[in-house]
């Protein structure tokens, strides 16, 4: 199936495995919150057990160093794409309000980004993540 939009998550490659998983989880929750229409129907198995709905389209995960991650953020903002962000400071907080304060305390150019997530038209996302490779 071809989607009109694309979801991309860009994660800094020098993080520990648990940090990468944490960042990917938080960023995709931001996409789901911003775009409730991307959520599919709830699941149910053949036994009748019910499960939560998921995002209904593929999520592409890219890896980047700090410079490439900042460049992707700049490209997104230049194209009027509002991304979800995760900064290194957020690893030291314990709740959502503290996460927002950690981001609010730093100017955009000084954010110590570890990941961004975004959903936009396919061609727009392709321009934002141009030259990035899938995370391995």
Q: How is this structure best described in words?
A:
The protein is of the alpha+beta class and 136 residues long. It has a single domain (5-40, 53-131), classed as Bit1 (3-Layer(aba) Sandwich). The protein is 35% helix and 24% strand. The protein has four helices and seven strands; from the N terminus they run E-H-E-E-E-H-E-H-E-H-E. The strands form two sheets. The protein has a five-stranded mixed β-sheet with strand order 5-6-1-4-7. Strands 2-3 form a two-stranded antiparallel ribbon. A hairpin with a 5-residue loop joins strand 2 (43-44) and strand 3. The relative contact order is 0.26. The mean pLDDT is 97.
Note the overall shape.
globular
Q: What is the N-to-C succession of helices and strands?
A: EHEEEHEHEHE
Strand order, biggest sheet?
A: 5-6-1-4-7
Total helical elements: 4
Protein name: DUF2000 domain-containing protein
InterPro entries: DUF2000 (IPR018988), Pep_tRNA_hydro_II_dom_sf (IPR023476)
Pfam families: DUF2000
